[in-house]
UniProtKB/TrEMBL annotation:
Belongs to the binding-protein-dependent transport system permease family. It holds the Pfam family BPD_transp_1. It is a multi-pass membrane protein. PANTHER family: ABC TRANSPORTER PERMEASE PROTEIN MJ0413-RELATED (PTHR30151:SF0), ALKANE SULFONATE ABC TRANSPORTER-RELATED, MEMBRANE SUBUNIT (PTHR30151). The keyword Glycosyltransferase does not apply. It comes from the Bacteria. Keywords: Cell membrane, Membrane, Transmembrane, Transmembrane helix, Transport. Its main location: membrane. The chain crosses the membrane at residues 12-34, 60-86, 98-119, 125-145, 175-201, 221-243. This is ABC transporter permease subunit. Residues 57-240 form the ABC transmembrane type-1 domain. One of its GO terms (cellular component) is plasma membrane. It is found in: Cell membrane.
Length: 252
């Protein structure tokens, strides 16, 4: 009963926060408090709903969301694999940590031109997205794999379990809550990586729309692309929060 009350309270606060943000957006745009570059929310929604622009938005959304999906899942798989490698072979952990920290220290904006040279320009958005997700998942999984207590590890060892069996039966389930939290936080990272990659010359996508809109001072188009990306990221973030609650309830 208390849990339901807390959930309802958080849901109401979340709805109020989003509503307040949208109201402030509308007021600033309506009264031109930020100049001509901040349109009212209603104008942006009308721009998106215009049937003449549906094809443009749908094509850009398909390209960007496909890059986000590819980058997200590739980043998760590679991040989990790297963390598992460091767990099964502890001697490799320091080297992996330093190498991944070094790669992460390089700004994505600086890496995008390198990917443009090394790969096809349409592969740059998912590659940049996967790189950001990879770091987030590696850190979360590595941290989660340490959640199993020494007592449980000693018990598995005393019962004759192999390292692989101990990993599969004890350490991996213990790491799931942290892994799911990392997957939730990686969703905005995947979107940011895709948009950054598209800025550097992709042939299609919402990031390309943003660049084109800025260069041609098409303010409603710019804000429409931003609103679509933000809404999609928040919706997926909210859905993953529900999954996170289920996993925490089962494994923690």
């Amino acid at each position: 009963m208390i849990l339901r009350s807390e959930t309802t309270h958080r849901l109401v606060l979340g709805v109020l926060g989003v509503g307040l943000f949208l109201a402030i957006w509308q007021v600033i745009g309506s009264y031109r408090l930020a100049g001509m570059t901040w349109p009212p929310l209603t104008d942006v929604l009308m721009f998106i709903a215009d049937p003449a622009r549906q094809t443009l938005f749908v094509r850009a959304m398909l390209a960007s969301f496909a890059s986000v999906a590819i980058g997200y899942f590739v980043g998760i798989l590679s991040g989990v694999a790297a963390a598992m490698l460091g767990q099964v072979l502890p001697m490799m952990r320091p080297g992996l940590d330093r190498l991944i920290a070094f790669i992460h220290a390089v700004p994505l904006v600086a890496l995008a031109p390198v990917f443009m040279v090394l790969a096809n320009r349409d592969l740059t958005p998912p590659a940049i997205s996967a790189l950001g997700v990879f770091y987030m998942i590696y850190v979360a999984t590595t941290s989660g794999l340490k959640a199993a207590s020494h007592t449980h590890r000693d018990l598995f060892t005393a019962l004759g379990s192999s390292p692989v069996k101990r990993f599969r039966r004890l350490e991996l389930p213990a790491a799931l809550p942290a892994l799911v939290s990392g997957m939730k936080l990686a969703i905005p990272v995947a979107f940011i990586g895709t948009i950054v990659g598209e800025w550097f010359g992709a042939s299609r996508g919402l990031g390309l729309l943003m660049v084109s809109a800025m260069q041609n001072f098409q303010i409603p188009l710019l804000w429409s692309a931003v609103l679509i990306v933000t809404t999609a990221s928040l919706v997926l973030f909210g859905l993953m929060s529900l999954v996170e609650r289920l996993v925490y309830g089962r494994f923690q």
